[in-house]
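Reopening this one. Same input as before:
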Amino acid sequence: MTGEGHDPRGAVTRLLDRAREGDACARDELFDLVYADLRAIAQRLIGAGSGPPGAFQATELVNAACLHMLDQERLDAENRRHFFYLLKRAMHDVLVKEARSAAADKRGGGRQRVPLVEFAVDDTTTVCGMLELSAAIAELHEIDPDAASVVRLRYFCGRSLRETAELMDSSLAVVRRHWDYAQAWLRVRLAGDG
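Same output, byte for byte:
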C-alpha cells in the first residue's frame, strides 16, 4: 500500500508517466498499486454519508470512480497527489450522480430525501443534503473558483491548509483567505439566508 502521502520510490508517478505514454499495462499496475488506498478513501466517503444509503460498497465506488476518471481525465494526472485528487473528485462525482438519480426516482410532493452531510464550517456545522452541498459549491465556483477548489481539497479530499496551498501552487496565506471566505459564504448559503 502506497498511501496518499507516500510514494517512496516514485512508483505511482513513474506508472502515471508510462500510462500517459499509452502503456496499458502501466495503467493496470497503477490501479493495483493504489487500490487498497482508494478503498479506504471510498469507505471514509461512504461512512460520512456522502451518497444515497446503501447505494455503494467501497469496492463498487472505487470501480465506478476509476471508470469515471478514465472517461473524463484519461489519466492526465501530473503526479501522485494530483492522481489521488482526481480519483477523490471522481468518487464525489459518482456519489452526486447517484444522489441525483435517486432524487429523480422519487415521486410525489416535489420533495426529495437524500442523506445528510455534515459540513463543518469553523466551529459550526451545517447539515445539508449531498445535492445541496454540491450545488452550493458549484455556485461558489462561479463567484470564486479558487475558493471552491480550496473547499473541494479540504472537505472532499481531507487536505490541510498547507497541503492545499501546495496542491494549488499558492501561498498558505492566500489559501487561508480563500478558506475563510468559502466558510463564511457556505455558512450563509447552506443556512438558506441568501
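So the earlier flakiness isn't reproducible anymore. For the record, Residues 141 and 148 are 5 Å apart (CA to CA).
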